[in-house]
Amino acid sequence: MKHKNSHLVVGYWSRLRQGRAVPDQSDIDPRAIKRLLSYTFILDCVNPSRPVYRLAGTSLCERFGFELKGTGFLAHWESQSGLSLASLLNQALKLKQPVCLSSIAATADGGMVELETILTPISFGSGEPTRFFGMVQMLSDPTPLLGRSIAYERL
Questions:
Q1: What is the largest CA-CA distance in the chain?
Q2: Cα separations (Å) of 46 from 52, 122, 129, 132, 154?
Q3: For residue 3, what pLDDT is reported?
Q4: Burial of 3 (0-12, 13-18, 19+ CB in 10 A)
């Protein structure tokens, strides 16, 4: 993990576990992460090959140019990255471990930025984890995104 906010999210997730393998979605307190909230999201991964945004922060939606809630997480990834991600998400849920992704995001006109995405597995109700609490953090100069949205991402 390169960004301090990524460390903060994983540390927060770890504290929420309180001796359990993963925390429950209901354990997440938006007030505790209020300055990061606009870049966070929850993914529903009942089917890890078709993860869907359950909710997404406003700044994250602005980066992609539309409301992400209800859309597929893999839809904005290039195809090979999408295949790798589906496998990685499945593995992270089984191992109950966080994942850190490094990617390059590009605009339709070729502007590029480096992103870091943190995915921490969470349960919803009782049972095994089927969701991720995540955050996307920009690692490079955001200038290429000014007035433009992300068209696709690549691992």
A1: 47
A2: 9, 12, 9, 10, 23
A3: 77
A4: middle
3-state class of 98 per DSSP? Answer: coil
Produce one character per residue of 48-67: b if its CB has 16 or more CB atoms within 10 Å, e if not: beebbbbebbeebbebbeee
3-class secondary-structure state, position 113: strand
25 in Cβ contact with 42 (< 8 Å): yes
Dist. CA 129–CA 112, nearest whole Å = 33
Tell the residue number behind the tokens 């991720």, with chain if given.
132
Measured CA distances, 73 to 33, 34, 119, 125 (Å)? 22, 23, 12, 22
Segment 112-128, tens digit of pLDDT: 999 999 999 999 987 88
pTM equals 0.92
pLDDT, residue 88, reads 95
Q: How many CB atoms lie within 10 A of CB 106?
A: 19
Binned at pLDDT 50, 70 and 90, residue 48 comes out as confident
Q: Phi and psi for 14 in degrees, rounded to 5?
A: -60, -40
